């Protein structure tokens, strides 16, 4: 069931990204699409890598941390390790940064241009253990589509 859901959502994301070559505009619509279609979220958005920090990008949700050092918190860890971080209980994550005290679980997926991490997609939920392996697979597929569509269009600009 979740597989079909994410495949449909991915097709919607691809349609949104079609012809778009602006990173900020693409991130804004992508985060809005996720926020509108995924249940039990309180934040969905991007942090963009700038030197040794992640800087707040387009998002849907409450006010957020503006800057996160590489290697710090769930987002900084995902970016530094270049791998998805799926955390069932953020309060058990060593070094968790509490931008919103209502967040209890989180998934963060690196966004890459080639092999380089250029941003992370961060999704938070007020529920414990909100994200399972199927969510991770579906969201990673969507991020790969985001990378392919957007960065190919930027390269052809």
From TrEMBL:
Ranges of residues in domain GAF? 39-142
Fetch the Pfam families from UniProt: GAF_2 (PF13185)
InterPro entries under this entry? FRMsr_CS, GAF, GAF-like_dom_sf, Phosphatase_reg/MetRdx
Q: Which domain of life is it from?
A: Bacteria
Q: Which PANTHER family match?
A: FREE METHIONINE-R-SULFOXIDE REDUCTASE, GAF/PUTATIVE CYTOSKELETAL PROTEIN
Protein family? Belongs to the free Met sulfoxide reductase family.
In Swiss-Prot or TrEMBL terms, this protein is called Free methionine-R-sulfoxide reductase YebR
């Amino acid at each position: 069931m979740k597989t079909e859901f994410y495949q449909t959502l991915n097709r919607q994301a691809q349609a949104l990204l079609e012809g778009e070559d602006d990173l900020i505009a693409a991130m804004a619509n992508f985060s809005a699409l996720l926020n509108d279609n995924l249940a039990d979220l309180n934040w969905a958005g991007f942090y963009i890598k700038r030197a040794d920090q992640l800087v707040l990008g387009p998002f849907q949700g409450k006010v957020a941390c503006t800057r996160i050092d590489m290697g710090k918190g769930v987002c900084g860890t995902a970016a530094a390790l270049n791998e998805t971080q799926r955390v069932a209980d953020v309060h058990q994550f060593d070094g968790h940064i509490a931008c919103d005290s209502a967040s209890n679980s989180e998934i963060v997926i690196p966004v890459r241009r080639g092999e380089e991490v250029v941003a992370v997609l961060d999704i938070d939920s007020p529920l414990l253990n909100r994200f399972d392996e199927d969510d991770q697979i579906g969201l990673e597929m969507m991020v790969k589509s985001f990378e392919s569509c957007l960065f190919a269009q930027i390269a052809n600009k």
